[in-house]
Amino acid sequence: MNFRWDKKYLYWGVTAFLVIAAAIVFFLGLSRVNEILGAVFSFLSILAPVLYGFVIAYILSPIATFIEKPCLRRLFYTIQDKKREKFEREHPGEEPPPKTFPVRKVARVLSVLITMIIALAVITGIIWILLPQLIDTITMLVNNMPRYVTQISEWVSQTLKNYPEAEQYVLQFTDGISDMLNKWLSTDLLPQMNNIWNLISSNVMNIISVFMNLLLGLVIAVYFLNSKELFAAQSKKMLYSIFKTRIANKIIYTTRDINKSFGKFITGKIIDSFIVGMLYVAIMSAFNMPYAALCGVIMGITCIIPYFGPFIGYIPCMLLLVLVDPVQCIYFTIMVLIIQNIEGNILAPKIIGDSTGLSSFWVIFGMLLGQGLFGFVGLIIGIPLFAVIYNFIKERVVHRLDKKALPSDSNDYRDIHHIDAETGEPVFFPHPPYMKKDKEKPNIKKGIKKIFVKEKHKSTDDKK
Known about the structure:
Helix content: over 70%
Strand order of the largest sheet: 1-2
Mean pLDDT: 75
Strand content: under 5%
Largest sheet: 2 strands, antiparallel
């Protein structure tokens, strides 16, 4: 008896086996999720220098490109052209020697070198300025805390002298807060600042590991910046070798959209925040305001966070200044209002532009969602990440609506009650709530004008 394979049953059997195997693997994965996550994080920790290098190179890439193309290449090509013109003047009729100077390679190497020097100088300068001033500020707060408490108590007594019960309650409340704050500053924070060497020595291996990862990340960032076109070409070659051409093209287009959204937003926001921080430092130093460098760094860093960043940075700066001089705090408040209006209306649109394409509601939604998922980093990357997801969903929706021959503009659905399932025609509200009578007249006039123009062209054609 001959046994004959039935391809249909074989196909269903293999499919059932794969489904059962996938279900078992999924169940085992859920039961060992902690071990899987631990393995993923350990793998990422091994690749930490590469990730650091990629992030550093991604942030510094616009600076390196600006130094290379508009600056160095133009300079070298101008020098070459002048040498050629000089040779032609001195040796008329002779062929000038061929160009042997590698402009692109030299410009690339110098641009990467200058970019890394600028980045290291900025980081070193911030640490050099910020750390001593931060230690002095904490020491000053600890030493002057009794005087601040006395001033607050005198102000409360003077203000609430006609209300003895409220005065007693407020004084008890302020005394409790001041005791708690003074105890925290003197027993917890200040000893840690004084014993920072012990803290460093106890975690010396972790600190060395992080330092080495950052150092290797800087070296890898140099490789990324120097060979970014080569890495992009290799990635495209790999995509076209693995996927079909149509799918590979979609992946490349999506990656370009992500790069446009992330790159323009994050790098532009960093440049914008750096300019804002320098503005605060320069203006506060010009008016001899205290803590100019510290407040400038705080306002510059928090300005990276959209919308709420300036308010987050304003609070600690305001508390520092009000303890030293309340009048200076008022000047600082006016300065914050002026600078943030300049930043929001002039600097940010020029540097960042409309890079996300999101409305104000979706910007706040994406920022809160990013903060909930990724913490402080999510406040920065939440908006461009959500913009990518939003645009992807929007493109899918528009594509499916086009297939159904339906309008893709949201405003077209304002006055639609429903769409008839049989005819596919929209059924409008009896009295469209969003239609205004004053906006109907220009449309009618416009339509009449079009009809009149058509009739006029018809009459001229008939005469001809």
